[in-house]
Each structure stands twice: as C-alpha cells, then as structure tokens.
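User: Could you go from structure to sequence for me? I need the amino acid at each position, not a summary. Structure tokens:
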C-alpha cells in the first residue's frame, strides 16, 4: 500500500513547481506561434488506439456496460479523431496540448508508464514550410526553458521503407532491423544481411543506411548512393526544409540521420528527434503523418511533435539549470485582535506577487522563520 507500481512517480512540491513552469513555458511558445490548446479525454474506446498501438502496451479496462476502454497512449491519435469528426473544413488548423499519456512499456531510465507530453499539430498542409515550422517551434520551446547544447536529428521514413521493401521479411524481422538501425549497430546489420541472404543493391542500401548521419553533406552523399527518382525527390525535399531552417537561423541545431526510424508506425514523411548532450535518449520526437486522419475518415495531411516534460526536467538537471525564479516569502505574525488587519496586509503583499503566510503569535512559535525572506510583526 505504501509503494508505487513500476513506471509512475510522485512529484514533490519543488519538483512539481519545476514541472509546471516547464509546461507553462512550452504552452506560451506554442500559443505565440498561433497554436490553440485542446484537451481530449484521458480515456476512450480501446479500438481508437489499437489500430496503431499493440494492445499489450495499452492500459485497458471495462466500463459497466462491458465496453473496452483504454487510457490514452498518445494525444496525436486523439487529435486526429477530433479533427476528422468535429473540426472539418477549417484548415490549416494549429492545435497544441499538454497532457499525460499512459503506455505499458518496460520502465527504463527516462522512460515511464505515465508521463506528460507537450506538443503541437499542424493539420491541413503538406509542404516544406509546415515541416520547417514544426521543427522551429520544437527548437524554440526547448530554448525557452534554458536547455542548451542540443541537436535535432532529421530523417525521413522513406529510406527505411525503401530498405525493407521486396525483402519478404516478417514483422518481427523488420522490428529487429529497426532496432539495429536505432542503435546504429553496424555489425548486427551486416550479420542480419548475411543471415537473410540479402544481396546486391539491397545489401548495399542496408549497410550504408546507418552511416548516413551528420551535417548537410549527408544529403549530398545520399544522392550519390541512392539515385532512384523517388529517393531523389525525398532528398530534394529535405534540402528545401533545411534552406528554410537556415533562413530562420536554426542551422546550428540541425543534423541529419537518414537511417532514423520511429517506434510509432503512423509517420509518412519527414521525422525528427531532439537530443541533449549527455542524455542518451530523445526528449522530443515528431514528424509528418499524412495517413493518420484517414483512419478516422478524413484524408488530411498533418505534421507535429511531442516533447517529454519529464525528460526536459532531467535535461535541465543535467545542465544544472534552475528555471524557477525565487519568490519573496513573507511571514506575518499577529495578535488575534489584529487578524483582520493582518489579512488585509497579506492580500496587499500577495497582489505584489509575494508569497505570504499568516500565523497568530501562539502558532508562529512552531514556524521555521529562517525559511522566510521577511517577517512582519503586527502587535498594534
């Protein structure tokens, strides 16, 4: 009864102040870029999520009518449902959120089963300017809380799709290869190629893919290696996005990783992840998902991202950044016949943004006065 299940945590007062401040900063950036806040329900019918998520990773339960419900594992899926059913016809549509999500994953460092995501969705556009804007907002959001020394790795799902097409691999084998690429495990990929008897151009494609990460030169290298028309168009698109990001002054944060893969299967185009130096996991993931709204009946292009608030807290802690401005704390001690005057004084000081606590002289004996910046005695 006194312990917590795996993957959840308590936030004590100081931790929670930091968490709320981060959420406020993210929300402020989103709104200034024109995104409107939305809040879907914490749970809905399980079928809305099981199309995209393994049911073993959902927190599912029954209501009194016997319906199978699930806690949301993802907000983007919910927004796709809302837009497809309630917000049709007013595009482009800019939406943002700060919400808890729930996934029954194996808990790891920086990976919880209940966690908070702050994100945006830009719905109704499918051009390079919208993808560049999404990446820019992610960068500005991380900068707003004081995170430094981070990179946004940009990729494209078309490269992985191209790598595995026509190989007649089972889903388990594709997932294994995805894991090797995510780890940049070159030797495991080479072994995979040999075990499956993959030959010729396909073998070369796979073996080169994890090596295509770095600066703008990666795109030039990719053009030399992959001279097919479709991949050529994909690389041209990435170059156009990069030119816009350079115009916005974002180039110092951008790198490319054409072997990038995402665990969520709804991405259809450009994808990206944000990494902070010294932290081995992404604190932000995003990309284009032009097919997701079609599941709910509306074929509308969309792009977006989600930042992990808890991982952002860890990044700030790692960089020894304090996001909270210290508030001036005032203690008012009063005689009981002056309680009304003491409250009026406290109200005045609170209006100035100060934290004020009131205690009668008898109760004040048990208060740690060293925790206050100012003490006011009201004796007369």
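Assistant: Here is the amino acid at each position, in order:
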């Amino acid at each position: 009864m006194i312990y917590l299940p795996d993957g959840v945590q308590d936030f004590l007062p100081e931790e929670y102040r930091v968490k709320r401040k981060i959420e406020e900063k993210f929300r402020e950036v989103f709104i200034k870029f024109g995104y409107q806040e939305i809040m879907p329900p914490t749970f809905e019918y399980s079928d809305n999520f099981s199309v995209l998520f393994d049911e073993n990773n959902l927190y599912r339960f029954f209501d009194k009518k016997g319906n199978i419900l699930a806690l949301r594992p993802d907000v983007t899926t919910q927004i796709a449902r809302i837009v497809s059913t309630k917000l049709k016809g007013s595009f482009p549509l800019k939406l943002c959120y700060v919400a808890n999500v729930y996934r029954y994953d194996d808990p790891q460092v920086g990976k919880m089963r209940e966690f908070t995501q702050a994100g945006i969705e830009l719905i109704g556009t499918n051009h390079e300017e919208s993808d560049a804007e999404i990446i820019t907002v992610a960068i500005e959001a991380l900068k707003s809380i004081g995170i430094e020394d981070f990179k946004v790795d940009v990729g494209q799902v078309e490269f992985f799709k191209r790598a595995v097409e026509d190989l007649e691999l089972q889903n388990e084998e594709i997932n294994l290869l995805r894991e090797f690429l995510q780890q940049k495990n070159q030797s495991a990929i080479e072994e995979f190629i040999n075990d499956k008897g993959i030959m010729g151009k396909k073998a070369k494609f796979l073996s080169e893919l994890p090596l295509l990460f770095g600066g703008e030169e990666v795109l030039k290298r990719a053009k030399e290696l992959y001279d097919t028309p479709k991949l050529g168009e994909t690389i041209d698109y990435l170059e156009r996005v990069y030119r816009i990001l350079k115009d916005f002054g974002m180039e110092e944060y951008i790198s490319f990783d054409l072997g990038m893969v995402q665990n969520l299967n709804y991405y259809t185009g450009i994808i990206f992840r944000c990494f902070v130096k010294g932290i081995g996991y992404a604190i932000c993931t995003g990309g284009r998902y032009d097919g997701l709204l079609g599941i709910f009946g509306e074929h509308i292009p969309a792009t977006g991202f989600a930042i992990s608030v808890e991982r952002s807290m860890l990044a700030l802690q790692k960089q020894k950044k304090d996001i909270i401005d210290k508030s001036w704390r005032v203690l008012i001690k009063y005689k009981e016949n002056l309680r009304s005057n003491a409250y009026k004084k406290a109200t005045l000081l609170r209006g100035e943004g100060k934290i004020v606590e009131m205690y009668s002289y008898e109760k004040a004996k048990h208060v740690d006065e060293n925790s206050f910046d100012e003490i006011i005695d009201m004796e007369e």
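One structural detail worth keeping in mind: The two ends are 50 Å apart (CA to CA).
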